[in-house]
Sequence to fold (282 residues):
Amino acid sequence: MTLPPSSAPDTQKLHWVDAHCHLQDPRLDPHRPQVLERAAEAGVGLVHVAATSESDWPAVAALADAHPEFVLCSFGLHPWFIHDRHPHWLDHLRDTLAGRPAGIGEIGLDGGMDDGLEADRDAVFLAQLDLSFELALPASIHCRGAWGRMLDILLARPPHPAGLLLHAYAGPPDALPALAAKNVHISFGGTLTRPNAKKALKNAKKALKNRFLVESDAPDLPPTLAEGQKAYFRDENGKILSEPAYIPYIGQLLADLRGTTPAQIAAETTATARRLFAPLLT
Fold:
């Protein structure tokens, strides 16, 4: 399934929240002002920017400082980038979180890496997840190829006091009710538009009301565009990059899949995002 060839003008008038993106990514450096402008034009009123490693925490903080009414931020260690963490990274994370309203993320597990760091990756994830429970802060979670382990961890714990977000959810549809009972949310982005995204489509239809959000994951996981539809911008290799301005298209597709309207999806996902990220809005 691909995005409709039109610009979906009705969705452009709605208010959206991008629940998960990485606007600090260096690939966006030459384009960032235009990316922010297009997001506003598309009706995206809030973006949640998640860090990936200690090295990009300052850039995430700078974005939040420069755009306090637009950017919400989270700090954490992504499972791809644990190898260069500081020996006292957890203390550094605590100090960073104490200095501003922020969540924890992007954290998680990844079973697709062959680097011998599986035990470290597990320990780093659990330490950050524990911290999110302790501080009652929302956490944004990555999971790829490790759904058995991830579900074992999340479903064995009590409901999260603030809420968790499994971004770009690709887990089993039948786990959605149990996850919702643990105050876990899911989000949908560009992968939903891929022709072979059968599981994502099923999850989009089965997602529980008030437990799902929309995301761009910018600059990664861009949507599949309709033939002839021009991308906003590409990287130096010609690859389409994602950005928050694509959020209305994801919302339109979700509305079609769930038999409702873009206005309803916008209102529901915005309310859910504001509830989940409430500690970041203060």
User: Anything to note?
Assistant: Residues 1-9 have pLDDT under 50 and may be disordered. Residues 9-280 form a domain with the TIM Barrel fold (CATH 3.20.20.140). The chain has one domain: 9-280. DSSP finds ten helices and eight strands in the chain.
